[in-house]
Input
Amino acid sequence: MKPEKGAARLLVLTEAVILTAAVVFGGVRKLRASTTEETNPPARTETQEIIAAETEEETELPEEEALETPEETGFAPEVTEKVAAMTLEEKVAQMFLTSPESLTQSEQVSIAGQGTRNAMDTYPVGGIVYSDTNFQGREQVGNLIFNALGISEERIGLPLFVAATADGGGGTPTIGISDAFEEDALVEVLAAKELNAESAGVTMPVTFPQTQVAADTPWVMLAADADEAVTGETDLPCALSAQCVVQVRGMGYQGVILTDSLAAENIKSQYETAEAAVLAVKAGADLIYCPENFPDAYAAVLAAAEAGEIAEEQIDNAVGRILTRKYRMNGTLAE
Output
């Protein structure tokens, strides 16, 4: 009986060894198969290749568009970024060059204090133009302009165009815009009550169509008078004419185009302040000079922009040119 028991035990042991080997070998095969799959994934089908290619194209497209944006606008990146960060209300306000009285709705302004600060909080205008009404002495008017410049920087982070009106000869008032964001040159103009081509530190805009425009002209002003030969209409003021803007741009000028005073007799006798301001912007003017009632003019342009009557893209382009001029004047951008 003992030999039979020994043989049985040997048989059981042999079967156990065979079974263990099978389990181990099978596990190794599975591990090798898993490793192979991870290292060499199965080839994608034609449909999967097409889907993958489309996904890669969609992922790259936004980055390409973002790189092209500054070139499409035609403005420097810092200008484009600043315009994009501004509200529509702020952009419309930048399109006005107005008197301190019209801005603050005061009879006479001799200081830039809380009243100016409150007004510019609502209307961060592109510029202010001063006259002998504001002059009570060199130090006083210097402080007036200096403080207004500071308020603009605090409110919107942008410098303020500052200008002055004075006798340009023959008793006709004309405008000179400071070449820098400071008060000294304007103090001298206001003290002398005279403005001409020799006045240091200020530039008088070239008036179109009376004068030809060069591409590097600092400022171009559209006249308040009508000129049928240019506008094609008998009574239309040049300041409100799209044809005038087209001709100026056709001469290669890409700078700021401002209107003559919207309070000029030839304009106010035909149009209400609000209507004239909207027409000027629609025509393509960038900077609206001295409407008779600034708040009404501002509100009308803003309402037209909000209603889509004036495209926001047009507003952005106007403000882009204004900011380009400001950044070049303070040395942020090269000429």
